[in-house]
Amino acid sequence: MHPDALKNLRTWFTKNAAKLPWRLTDLNALRDPYAVWISETMLQQTQVTTVHDYFLRWMERFPNVQTLAKASEAEVFKYWQGLGYYSRARNVLKAAQIIASLGKFPDTRKELEALPGIGAYTAGAILSLAYHKREAILDGNLVRIFSRFYKIGFLPTDKPSAKSKGKSCAEIYWNYARQVADSSKAYMHNEALMELGRTICKVKNPLCEKCPLSKFCKARLENCAESFPPAKKHIQQEWHGTVLVIESADKKILGVTEGCKFLKGQLALPHFESPKSATAGLTAEAERFVNADTIRSICNCGRFRHSITIHKIECEVQHIVLTTAAKTTPAGLAATWIPKAKALETFANSFSLKALKLVKKSSSPCK
Ligand code: SF4
């Protein structure tokens, strides 16, 4: 990027940087790498406005890596609940345990990228924003800006083609990111571009007239900003299923941590794929979780929609009440019984909570 474009960018950012809980008042100060890591991880796939309160709550409960390393997975999930992509929370905990055992927060790309859940983007963000190293970052905001600024007609995820002159598309974008970061102000360039992408160079209706890069931006000069970057081929998978709310005679709800399609490793309600039409009675799949001889009643409580990563989910909810107490869990299942009164606070994922709330709301005669 032209030095004058970067100078304009710095001036703009100094005047317009939003006040955010993970950003210090002094934009030139070194930052806490732990806080940068947590905020950048939360911000992946999630809006700044949503992350704001989650970050504050998280930092109050887990103010440093040592506190986090000692927390249980269930508690970490609770503080992550609603942000989705729970594998990120699990990785954050695992990485915190490794960092705590190292005795210091890693400060090289190699060490950081060796930690669970930390990729090239997060490592670059920690190194540049916290330690002020000349390290590049590349997220969706920077991709959009580079694509428009240089009129790049492909995405980093595309295969090499004539448009990329046979070169790696990702490498072309990373090279632009490295140019921006090849400066003692790399930290400011990186953060300013992220902010510019969020507030000015937006996906739709970019505010080019307010943009500090407008004099240099090829797409702006040719009046075709919205034609860049090219549209991503959308891959979304539909998934229809049934969620079981299995209630024992002594009012406990069965939760599983393995053996189902989604939310592996965290406590979720049993679920399985089923046809779009409502499942009536006990199906063969449900018998993995419940013994047919112990059933007092089965009620269908309605359906809900949900999204997990690329899956667009629609689920039927069945409430199954047993004649037996919660003494044992079904054979071969990683499962546990949760007191019904505590279910809403214990199942820390919105997938299970939606099903529990449907049962609570329904006029199911099983209740
Ligand atoms: S001038 Fe417009 S298209 Fe170019 S970087 Fe700025 S906002 Fe984006």
Please characterize this protein's 3D structure:
With 367 residues, the chain is α+β, with helices and mostly antiparallel strands. The protein has 14 helices and six strands. It has helices at 3-16, 33-43, 48-61, 65-70, 73-80, 86-102, 109-113, 120-130, 140-149, 169-181, 186-199, 218-221, 343-346, 350-361; strands at 237-247, 252-256, 271-273, 295-308, 311-322, 335-339. It has a four-stranded mixed beta sheet with strand order 3-1-5-4, with helices on one face. A hairpin with a 2-residue loop joins strand 4 (295-308) and strand 5. Helix 1 (3-16) packs across helix 11 (186-199), helix 5 packs across helix 6 and helix 9 (140-149) packs across helix 11 (186-199). Iron/sulfur cluster (SF4) binds at residues 145, 148-149, 200-201, 206, 208, 211, 213-214, 217, 219-220, 225.
The fraction of residues assigned to DSSP E strands is: 5-15%
**What Rg do the Cα atoms give?**
24 Å
> What's the architecture of the largest domain, going by CATH?
Orthogonal Bundle
State the CATH topology of the largest domain. Endonuclease III, domain 1
Give, in spatial order, the strands making up the sheet with the most strands: 3-1-5-4
CATH homology superfamily of the largest domain: Hypothetical protein, domain 2
Main structural class: alpha+beta
Query: What is the straight-line distance between the termini?
Result: 65 Å
Tell me, what is the CATH class of the largest domain? Answer: Mainly Alpha
How many helix segments? 14
Roughly what percent helix? 25-40%
* Count of folded domains: 2
- Give a count of the beta strands, DSSP E runs of length 2 or more: 6
Give the ordered list of helices and strands: HHHHHHHHHHHHEEEEEEHH
Biggest sheet record: 4 strands, mixed
Mean pLDDT: 92
What low-confidence regions span 5 or more consecutive residues with pLDDT below 50? Answer: none
- What are the bound molecules? iron/sulfur cluster
Label the overall shape. Answer: elongated
